[in-house]
Amino acid sequence: MKHDVAAVIVEPIQGEGGDNHGSPEFFQGLRDITAKYGVVFIVDEVQTGGGGTGTFWAHDSWNLSSSPDIVVFAKKLMVSGYFYAEHLQMKEPYRIYNTWLGDPTKVILLEKALQVIKRDNLLEQTQRVGKALQSKLRQIESVNNSKIRNVRGLGTFCAFDMPDTATRNKFLEIAGNNGLFIGGCGKVTVRFRPALIFGDEHLEIALDIITKSLSEL
Fold first, then answer.
1. Please, which residues bridge with residue 72 across strands?
2. Which of 21, 41, 96, 118 has minimal Cβ neighbours within 10 Å of its Cβ?
3. In angstroms, what CA-CA distances link 39 with 64, 68, 115?
4. Does the keyword Transferase apply (predicted)?
5. Sheet of 183-185, strand order
6. Residue 1, pLDDT score
7. Pairing state of beta strands 7-10 and 189-192?
């Protein structure tokens, strides 16, 4: 049975599902297909937007033939919203807004945050520290391969897997008690979501706690 497809929506990294990554080639092909058939291509950057992947938008690293039609954002950007291609402009866009048109004060905060990101070269720092984080995690994995596997990431948006849910949850508890607050996603994944100011000094502390926590597991 055939159906028309209005839109395709994707996350650059499937966050809650276990930090699953799609390759740039996959997204390039998907974009070309949606453009060919007039399907709206929506990128959900609610988790990945704001610089944690080393670029302000994760889809910036895909080298698409044409930009997404809609990009959705929230969380780190302090405001929730979306931007869209000109051909999707509504005749009466004000009709979808609420009574107070959002919270203008949050836009002021976002403007200041963007100034700090640019002033302090935080995207470049995130790229550099992210590479070091992934490299060091792989070194830890090599001597703890019965406990962690599949280290992966983009920028400091990193993750690894553990043997089962119970082991993962116990590790998170131990790490938290040792002073490192990291999260879980999917069934067996440990994920890292540090702030953009996460630097070399923080990295060394985090790695020491990870090593210590694995030894206590």
1. 44, 82
2. 96
3. 15, 11, 35
4. yes
5. 149-154, 157-161, 189-192, 183-185
6. 45
7. unpaired
CATH of span 122-215: 3.90.1150.10
pTM of the predicted protein model = 0.88
Asked if 133 and 110 count as a contact pair (C-beta separation under 8 A), the reply is: no
Residue partners of 193: CB distance under 8 A and separation at least 6:
52, 156, 157, 182, 183
CATH 3.40.640.10 in the chain, residues? 7-103
Give the CB-side neighbour count of residue 45, counting CA atoms within 13 A. Answer: 27
Q: Which residue bears the tokens 């509504």?
A: 90
Average pLDDT, the chain: 93
CATH of domain 7-103: 3.40.640.10
Using the structure block, give the residue that is written with the tokens 């830890």: 140
Length of the chain: 217
Instruction: Kindly report, residue by residue over 15-37, the tens digit of the pLDDT.
Output: 899 999 999 999 999 999 999 99
Helix (H, G, I), strand (E, B) or coil at 160: strand
Q: How many CA atoms lie within 13 A of 67 on its CB side?
A: 10
Task: Name the 3-class secondary structure at 26.
Answer: helix
Contacts with 144 (C-beta within 8 Å, 6 or more apart), sequence order: 214
CATH 3.90.1150.10 domain extents, the chain: 122-215
